Amino acid sequence: MQTEHNCIVIFGASGDLTHRKLIPALYNLFKIGRLNENFSVLGVARSDLNDETFREKMREALLETEETTPESLNDFCHHLYYEAVNTSDAVDYGKLVPRLDELHAKYQTHGNTLYYMSTPPSLYGVIPECLAAHGLNTEEYGWKRIIVEKPFGYDEETAEALDIQIHRFFEEQQIYRIDHYLGKETVQNLLVLRFSNGWFEPLWNRNFIDYIEITGAESIGVEERGGYYDGSGAMRDMFQNHLLQVLAMVAMEPPAIINANSMRDEVAKVLHCLRPLTQDDVEHNLVLGQYIAGEVDGVMVKGYLQEKGVPPYSTTETYMALRCEIENWRWAGVPFYVRTGKRLPTRVTEIVIHFKTTPHPVFSQNAPENKLIIRIQPDEGISMRFGLKKPGAGFEAKEVSMDFRYADLAGATVMTAYERLLLDAMKGDATLFARTDAVHAAWKFVQPILDYKAQGGRVYDYEAGSWGPVAADKLIAKEGKVWRKPSGLMKKKV
User: What predicted TM-score, i.e. pTM, was given to this entire model?
Assistant: First the structure.
């Protein structure tokens, strides 16, 4: 019996995430043969749809965004079903029992069920309870797994309460907290780059690394999500989950074996080793910003306070930069500079490892810095920068690069993050999903930032289309360093 024999139940099936990410991901897995014929997808939402109207809706979404063939599209859509359920009413979940029995029998999926909560976070505790009321959580007949989207909680306290609530009905090994950043090929490649190369592993520590930058930049504003975003801000939206997880993967120790528990043990250790933020840190090593009107790609765009759904006096941050440290043997004294923001010049997520200079730069006082740039998105790749002699007389050094881009690999098909993570969840591989102790450690670390925000901490303005507030440049300049200003494409020069 293959683990891919299963029924995927998507709660919130009429929502944006389902037709933009989940259904396209499942279609592409089906198209490349990673999903065989023994699967079904049951969409669940309040909307008044049926099997046919749901299929038609998803078909249109796929035609719009994916490369389809009429045959594969028809075959795939025959696996789609729909059940209208009031997701807040436990009694209404009774409709799912005969429907799931029918689908398990039809597709011989042996009771294996993957529940995906593509719903508002207010339902994350409700849905498991309602499923349990009808015995849809028990594993007497096939495995049951539940995927939870971010945000997992709103702060340390609510994350803990949500954990307790879900754990009443599902065991930890059944819970998959999804972070689509960890599904990106380059994030996973980071581990192989580090741990399988004798070039890098001996250098990956405080003796050779000067500092590390992690940037998660977006060129878009809040778009139609002003109401939602205002309650979250850059810290909750990007930093607490995506960027802290990336930081943990950059800094983790080599796992004893490659399996989910070992990998997740090392990630959790890093988050536990983050030096707690003091009052001095939030005042001097943290910068919060909010974009005002400015020019992006030659077009004037409005400021955050003019966006739809945003209160006119909002102090929610759309940018944050933080200097933090990891208190362990490998990283003692190495600063990590992490920043994220909306309405920055380009969309880019990357890690920059800045190596220390040689102790006696005999060939040039201005020798180029050695750095390793790991580009997570877009245009995934890795670039190594080092100094070579300029042609001609003398020994003046210039920066050159060695670049690798995934796009240059012949015949390589890079799975999207959701394709990879959905496949892993169906296989029961939790390696790239956040475990409860890591989630709590992340919330515990950011709590002083939340407190600072709640106390009306300073939020700096920055123009849309700039690289953030001047205060962020000063933050890193205090130690004689500068932020890298990357372009969007990993061409010869990034």
Answer: 0.88
